[in-house]
């Protein structure tokens, strides 16, 4: 299963405007993209993955500025979808 890591660049993390932008980008993809925080699992691994197109799931992810997240997807178009969403996450959407 293809995956990408990305570091949250928005100063408010994946909340408000950055979360909405990610949800919008995820909804436009031909595959379902899952997102999980890295380094927060019980063994230092990944936390629970949530659907990147769900605003409520993203808000409960707790991905703050500088958090590393892991995106996964499967199927035709998965690699391109991961590239698009990683770029959204790595952009500071709080800049004026």
Automatic annotation (TrEMBL):
Cellular component per GO, a single term: cytoplasm
InterPro entries: HPr (IPR050399), HPr-like (IPR000032), HPr-like_sf (IPR035895), PTS_HPr_His_P_site (IPR001020)
Location relative to the cell: Cytoplasm
Keywords recorded for this protein, A-Z: Cytoplasm, Phosphotransferase system
HPr domain boundaries: 1-96
Broad class of the protein's primary localization: cytoplasm
One of the GO BP terms on file: phosphoenolpyruvate-dependent sugar phosphotransferase system
Pfam assignment, any one: PTS-HPr
Role according to the record: General (non sugar-specific) component of the phosphoenolpyruvate-dependent sugar phosphotransferase system (sugar PTS). This major carbohydrate active-transport system catalyzes the phosphorylation of incoming sugar substrates concomitantly with their translocation across the cell membrane. The phosphoryl group from phosphoenolpyruvate (PEP) is transferred to the phosphoryl carrier protein HPr by enzyme I. Phospho-HPr then transfers it to the PTS EIIA domain.
PANTHER family: PHOSPHOCARRIER PROTEIN HPR (PTHR33705), PHOSPHOCARRIER PROTEIN NPR (PTHR33705:SF2)
UniProt protein name: Phosphocarrier protein HPr
């Amino acid at each position: 299963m293809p995956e990408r890591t990305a570091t949250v660049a928005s100063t408010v993390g994946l909340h408000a405007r950055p979360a909405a932008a990610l949800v919008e980008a995820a909804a436009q993809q031909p595959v379902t993209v899952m997102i999980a925080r890295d380094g927060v699992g019980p063994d230092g691994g990944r936390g629970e993955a949530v659907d990147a197109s769900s605003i409520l799931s993203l808000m409960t992810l707790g991905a703050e500025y500088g958090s590393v997240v892991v995106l996964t997807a499967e199927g035709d178009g998965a690699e391109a979808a991961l590239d698009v969403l990683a770029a959204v996450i790595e952009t500071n959407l709080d800049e004026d």
